[in-house]
Amino acid sequence: MKITAIHPYPVWVGIRNQLIVKVETNEGIVGWGESGLSGREKAVVGAIEHYREFLIGRDPMAIGALWQEMYRSQYFEGGRVLTAAISAIDIALHDIKGKALGVPVYQLLGGKQRRHIPTFATTRGPCGPEMIEQAKELMAGGWTAIRLFPASHDSRGVYEPRASIAETAKWCVKAREELGDEVVLGVDYHHRLSVAEAASYCQKMPSGTLDFLEEPIRDETPEAYEALRRMTGVPFAIGEEFASKWQFLPYIERDIHQFNRIDVCNVGGLTEAMKVAGWSEAHYVDMMPHNPLGPICTAATIHFAASVANFSWLETRASPGELYHGFDDIEIFPVQPRLEGAVYKVPDTPGLGVEVDEDLVKKQSFKFWEAPHLQRIDGSVTNW
């Protein structure tokens, strides 16, 4: 079997772009992958086009060797753009291999270790009574792990961290009081705080209020996370923006965090994700995958979650009052993972278990999109 074509499709689906990638073979078996570098899809398309030049004619079954060649056969190795491109191709190659062998992808990763994949859901309302009511609705729907959103920016794009942490801490305490101790509660601060601000936020709440704090500060300096670790006992959930095993290295080896928010569409695909999972298992760090994209990302992550021992919850885009699974379109993705209550069943069909209507994909267009560029009240730029 040989690779005959690689087609990147950066297209607007639902309310955002998805970069999905089709890999074709001379035996008629095709695979689908997805890249996770949201907002910079055109950059990833360029990297995929470079890789395509030497992947055409190669054996798609040699996934590990092709991963090494894509990563190492250039002077400027690594980086989020390149590993996002590698991720999409790697996932598509797993899809091809599973279909060629007639097995689901999890069989390529060591076999299934669980029957279904537990998920966590997120409230969408602002900090306040609405947030607590939405959490109660999610609990009634079967969720035992819920992520809360902190007080956010205003309509002008102004974000003041100190104001946010004061308001968020107050309502997190009330949420714990009303929701009880059995539900897992976490907050995603989207790396918008400094070390001092994050420590202050944690210290404003009684011990046991939060079960995890997600991405409180930026990740470039592990030593900063170590300083924050000394100031709070709240477990950290970090890593969704990590682009390699090497980026995870200091966090795992120094026991800085407790949950890996790994993204299979950014880290280097399933090949790299499995290496990070094994490494994490040795340090008793659970995998808590990032899953904000479309059905291909969800399917690939379900197979990953089914195959690793150290797993907690998979992110799902479920909101009170409506359920949606990635920014998906049932016509574009007629076969895809669907939530059953608060869990995903592990598919047993060959490959990923996703079907794509390529004719409809070709009819979609790409739209340039920018995340909000936030400022503090004094006009200075702050983190999105």
TrEMBL record:
Q: Which Gene3D superfamilies match?
A: Enolase-like C-terminal domain, Enolase-like, N-terminal domain
Does this UniProt record's set of keywords contain DNA-binding?
no
Enumerate the SMART domains for this protein: MR_MLE
**The entry's keywords:** Lyase
Q: Which Pfam families match?
A: MR_MLE_C, MR_MLE_N
Q: Where is the Mandelate racemase/muconate lactonizing enzyme C-terminal domain?
A: 129-235
Work out whether the entry's keyword set contains Repressor.
no
Position of the signal peptide: none
List the protein's name: Galactonate dehydratase
